[in-house]
């Protein structure tokens, strides 16, 4: 009895050791500096559990996501900071502008870059923001030369584009179809959404309807690269009699726009044309496509099929570091 009582008294006097947010955060920063991104994310999330509204922890997590190419997730975190600390953490505007630029959402990027300069006349990131705005202006000029379409509400369109892109990259076909259907109704001039709708429809199992839609659009515009790539893939997957002719059709097409170049490379890979896919992947400016999970999956798969096993594994691991969802969504 005495031993039991002594044990109880000793236990009562023990003070439980509780890790504070600073402890977790310091380990997260260290892991981040060593480029152990998954480990860094775990530590930083633990720190945020201790202090959910700590802007420093949240901002560092957003920077981690940016480094990993997870720009959507980075922006979600930054918006949380602004919701509670808008006037104190104006650097978030610069970080948001930078992330949206990486996503190709230049209207959103410009909005936050302008906002940063409005509130920080001589801020730490003034030069970077001014350089970013200069690049955005150049992009707008290039787009005007290529496309005369004008939309009354560009910001809203960009949000739709970003949302659709996220669902397509995560193979969330039903959600993508809902967003794309709204885009087609609200922005009928924006033709790309129609082709993305057909693609999502096909991947969702509605092969006949997807092919019928895409064939109708191709009849109206036989120079449409979107139609050519979709039909090449659709015909290959369904063993259609036109499969070979459409693969031949795209052999001599060389787009200049990076997302189209990427889709061309992926289409060749999906059709088992790995040598051609490899050549197209090699022509990409890698920095411009790192926010695509599909880039890492299909390029690494192409390398594997061509017996570049070491290069394939390195690229796949790099993709996993940048996109935590890559292994879950695409698997290998």
TrEMBL record:
Q: Which Gene3D superfamilies match?
A: Tetratricopeptide repeat domain (1.25.40.10)
Q: Which organism is it from?
A: Halalkalibacillus sediminis
Keywords, A to Z, come to: TPR repeat
Kindly provide the name given to this protein in its UniProt entry: Tetratricopeptide repeat protein
Pfam families membership: TPR_17
Ranges for the TPR repeats: 21-54, 55-88
Asked whether the UniProt record includes Transcription among its keywords, one would answer no
């Amino acid at each position: 009895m005495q031993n039991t009582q002594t044990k109880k008294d000793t236990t009562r006097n023990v003070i439980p050791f509780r890790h504070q947010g600073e402890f977790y955060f310091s380990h997260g920063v260290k892991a981040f500096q060593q480029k152990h991104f998954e480990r860094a994310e775990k530590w930083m999330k633990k720190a945020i559990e201790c202090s959910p509204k700590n802007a420093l922890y949240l901002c560092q997590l957003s920077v981690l996501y940016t480094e990993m190419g997870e720009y959507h997730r980075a922006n979600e975190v930054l918006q949380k900071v602004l919701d509670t600390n808008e006037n104190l953490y104006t650097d978030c505007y610069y970080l948001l502008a930078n992330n949206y630029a990486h996503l190709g959402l230049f209207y959103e990027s410009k909005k936050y870059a302008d906002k940063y300069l409005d509130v920080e006349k001589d801020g730490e990131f003034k030069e970077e923001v001014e350089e970013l705005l200069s690049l955005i202006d150049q992009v707008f000029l290039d787009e005007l030369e290529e496309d005369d379409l004008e939309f009354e509400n560009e910001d809203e369109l960009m949000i739709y584009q970003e949302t659709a892109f996220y669902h397509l990259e995560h193979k969330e076909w039903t959600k993508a179809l809902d967003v794309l259907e709204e885009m087609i109704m609200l922005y009928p001039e924006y033709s790309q959404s129609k082709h993305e709708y057909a693609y999502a429809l096909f991947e969702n199992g509605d092969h006949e309807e997807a092919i019928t839609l895409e064939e109708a659009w191709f009849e109206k515009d036989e120079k449409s690269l979107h139609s050519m790539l979709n039909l090449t893939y659709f015909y290959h997957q369904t063993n259609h009699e036109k499969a070979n002719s459409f693969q031949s059709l795209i052999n001599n097409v060389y787009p200049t726009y990076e997302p189209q170049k990427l889709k061309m490379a992926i289409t060749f890979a999906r059709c088992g044309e790995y040598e051609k896919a490899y050549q197209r992947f090699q022509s990409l400016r890698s920095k411009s496509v790192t926010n695509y999970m599909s880039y890492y999956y299909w390029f690494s798969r192409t390398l594997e099929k061509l017996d570049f096993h070491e290069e394939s594994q390195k690229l796949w691991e790099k993709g996993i570091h940048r996109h935590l969802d890559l292994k879950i969504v695409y698997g290998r």
